[in-house]
Every structure is written in C-alpha cells, then in structure tokens.
Amino acid sequence: MEKVAIVGCGSYMDRGYGCPGEWRCLKAAALGEGQITEPSQVTAFVRCECPGRTLVPNVGMAMKLSEIKPDMIYLSTCLANAKPGCPYTEAKDMAKILEDKTGIKVVLGTHDYH
Ligand code: SF4
C-alpha cells in the first residue's frame, strides 16, 4: 500500500465551505479513486498557508515528525484546480519546488468528486 502526503490550500480550507479538512481527499486515498490510483495510507496532511513559503519546510517537518517518507505527495484538488487560482504560485510550479526539495514525486490533484 502506498504512503501518501496531501497538501491542501489553507486559504480555501479557512474560507470555503467545502473543505473542513476534508473527506473527499481522504475518501479518494482510502478507495484509490481520482488521481490516487490505489488505496493508500495518508501519512501527512499539510496545509499550505499564504503566501506559501512555509510549505516546503512544513512538509519536511511532517515527514520528520512522523518518521515516514511518503511515496507520493498530492496537491489537493482544491489547490491544484482552483479557479481563480492561487495568487502566489501556479500549482505546477509549487509541485516542482516540492519535488526538487523532497525528491518525492508530486501529483496535481487528488479526487474528481463534485
Ligand atoms: S499560497 Fe496559494 S495554495 Fe497556498 S494557501 Fe495561499 S492561496 Fe492557497
């Protein structure tokens, strides 16, 4: 079973009403649906916080404290597909930064639920 870390958009989690932190990413991981193609263990769920500069160190700290290195990191659907998008960094650039810093593959989006 794959171990996965998920990154959510903290701005949306705070201000939207669809994400209390949230069941859809966790459902996709549990069932292996959407972009998470097999049932997976969620070993970290990290909130991005505007303007996003704390994301890489917070993902690193989550891995350090859990002592679990995930096989994949997913940027949540609310982050990766946001319309309007993040005003600070495009999701694909955020993914590249995370990949370069952690050496772990980063996937854009978690689920396709509505
Ligand atoms: S920096 Fe962008 S992705 Fe991160 S919390 Fe703010 S709006 Fe969301």
Care to give the gist of this entry?
The protein is α/β, with parallel strands linked by helices and 114 residues long. It has helices spanning 10-15, 23-31, 55-66, 77-80, 91-102, and strands at residues 2-9, 40-48, 72-75, 105-108.
Descriptive notes:
With 114 residues, the chain is α/β, with parallel strands linked by helices. The protein has one domain. Helices cover 38% and strands 22% of the residues. It has five helices and four strands; from the N terminus they run E-H-H-E-H-E-H-H-E. The protein has helices at 10-15, 23-31, 55-66, 77-80, 91-102; strands at residues 2-9, 40-48, 72-75, 105-108. It has a four-stranded parallel beta sheet, sandwiched between helices. The protein is globular, with a radius of gyration of 13 Å. It starts with a strand and ends in a 6-residue tail after the last strand. The model has no long low-confidence stretch (mean pLDDT 93). The site of iron/sulfur cluster has 11 residues, from helix 1.
